[in-house]
Amino acid sequence: MVFDVADVRVWIVDALESNADWRSRKADEYPDDERNLDAVADSRRLRDEVAALPASAFEGLLRHVNSREDDGRFDEWCQHQNEVIGGIGFRHFPENAVALLEELGGAPVLRAVTQD
User: Fold this and answer.
1) pTM (2 d.p.)
2) Average pLDDT of the segment spanning 19-45
């Protein structure tokens, strides 16, 4: 299977929204841990930024994801995505959507896109 930009964008946007929802529930459970509310805000901000990125911003990540599918390591990438997005505000602190996509595996093309 070959994935396209829409596939990757939807996965990331959905994962960010799911993370925000989960962290919101954790904030209710642990009201003294402000990191959860920060993670909710960061996840929703990143969700909106990812949704607004041009398709060209996903080229490097798309190649990375498709190469993982080709060599049978797509599940590893999915696990990596879950770890990165699930760790927002705790272990991962992407400054913006481009930094998030770079962390997910799309660094080479994204650097070129952001330098234009």
Assistant:
1) 0.86
2) 97
> Is the predicted pLDDT of residue 29 greater than 50, yes or no?
yes
**Dist CA 42 CA 92 (whole Å):** 11
The amino acid present at 49, given as its one-letter code, is: E
Task: For residue 72, count CB atoms less than 10 angstroms from its CB and return exposed for 0-12, middle for 13-18, buried for 19 or more.
Answer: exposed
Q: What's the rounded Cα separation, in Å, for the pair 38 and 20?
A: 10
CB 62 within 8 A of CB 3: yes
Query: Where in the sequence is the domain holding 101, given as residue range(s)?
Result: 5-114
As for how many domains the chain has, the answer is 1
Q: Token match 């041009």: residue?
A: 54
Q: Determine the Cα–Cα distance for residues 78 and 11; give it in Å rounded to an integer.
A: 10
